[in-house]
Fold this protein.
Amino acid sequence: MTQSTFKLVSSYKPSGDQPAAIEQLCSGIEAGDRDQVLLGVTGSGKTFTMAHVIQKMGRVSIILAPNKTLAAQLYGEMKEFFPENSVEYFVSYYDYYQPEAYVPKTDTYI
């Protein structure tokens, strides 16, 4: 593990399965595992767990999201967790444009 330059700001501490998940993910990273999956239901603290892994490993990270709504949510949460670090948000429209939803009343794609 490296000395962390990431300071996670939160009044909460990892609980339940989170400490074990953080340890397993960090161990996997240290072992060179390229692919790992963090499973959890909505609201179980996956983003919080990821933030703890980032802090513990002290490594710059890229978080991929399947849509721009989730990407924006992750950006906001990571900004709050790491207010002293650079947190960036990028949506790529490479290849094609595919709206995620259509609002017929206003004829708007979002």
